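Milestone 3.1: sequence recovery, worked example.
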């Protein structure tokens, strides 16, 4: 899309470009698109993904959501239609939808044709290396990995874990944009491209590295803040807290270097002290116990309801 001259007039105010920070331009389009083609190669790992571009979605509720999300993303009808087309094809495999997938598809369509966007997303959905199960409407895979993130943070940054727990700041309130949405709308585009490339190269392990690189970078800010809304804004890297041109703490004073520093911290972060597989198993067991407790509570409530006699049920005689 970004190679089209009309894109820059028709989509200049598109919400998707809110964090572009002048990184993607018409002049830089060819270079950026070539880089994105390399991302497809990274996830396919030498084997081309077969794609049925005629696959579609017949679920009316999903189609309505696709249309609404496209309208929130692009200004022109043609680009909205392209986004919906890709989501319909992907629905035939995912059989569900999470808005995070819409974020990813819309960003990739800036740089890739529809078929290559589908191929890339299918690999992310199908391969254990990446994020299978994340794009369900209520994804247990995300809930599991949010718990894993909490456990990893408690190991490496116990003060932050304790602080956020005391404030009742739970990962479900902010981590979806990191994990499910792959930081679209979180990172300015320059840092986002580096983030995505590292993720496509290393897989889900890099997502956990990113969470720790981010916490390491903003640890001082988090520990100094007691306002829950501001802590959440920090964790989301909200532009109201961290402007797109914010510079890093060190010598690099390039506009936006703060976000590049987070990604570099993530790339360098050593997770060897923890086992993601073991922590996932722990999280799954916790989820199983929580579900059993929920079912027990529901059954008890049903029993209580059965014991209630309403006035219109009483025998007047």
């Amino acid at each position: 899309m970004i190679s089209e001259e009309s894109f820059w007039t028709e989509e200049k105010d598109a919400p998707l470009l809110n964090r572009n920070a002048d990184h993607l331009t018409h002049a830089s389009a060819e270079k950026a698109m070539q880089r994105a083609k390399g991302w497809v190669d990274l996830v396919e790992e030498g084997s081309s993904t077969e794609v049925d571009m005629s696959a579609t979605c017949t679920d009316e509720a999903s189609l309505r959501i696709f249309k609404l999300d496209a309208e929130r993303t692009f200004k022109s009808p043609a680009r909205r239609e392209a986004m919906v087309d890709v989501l319909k094809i992907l629905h035939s495999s995912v059989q569900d939808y999470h808005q995070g997938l819409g974020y990813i598809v819309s960003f990739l369509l800036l740089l890739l044709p529809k078929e290559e966007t589908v191929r890339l997303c299918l690999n992310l959905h199908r391969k254990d290396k990446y994020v299978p199960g994340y794009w369900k409407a209520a994804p247990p895979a995300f809930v599991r990995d949010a718990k894993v993130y909490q456990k990893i943070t408690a190991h490496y940054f116990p003060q932050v874990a304790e602080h956020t727990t005391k404030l009742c700041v739970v990962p479900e309130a902010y981590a979806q944009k990191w994990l499910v949405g792959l930081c679209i709308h979180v990172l300015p585009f320059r840092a986002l491209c580096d983030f995505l490339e590292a993720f496509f190269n290393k897989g889900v392990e890099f997502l956990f590295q990113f969470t720790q690189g981010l916490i390491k970078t903003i640890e001082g800010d988090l520990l100094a803040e007691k306002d829950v809304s501001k802590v959440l804004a920090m964790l989301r890297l909200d532009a109201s807290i961290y402007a797109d041109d914010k510079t890093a703490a060190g010598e690099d004073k390039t506009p936006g270097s703060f976000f590049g520093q987070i990604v570099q911290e993530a790339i360098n972060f050593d997770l060897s002290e923890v086992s993601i597989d073991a922590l996932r198993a722990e999280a799954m067991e916790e989820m199983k116990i929580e579900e059993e407790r929920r079912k027990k509570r529901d059954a008890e409530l049903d029993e209580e309801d059965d014991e209630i006699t309403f006035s219109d049920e009483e025998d007047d005689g």
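The chain has two domains: 5-126, 140-276. The chain has a mean pLDDT of 95.
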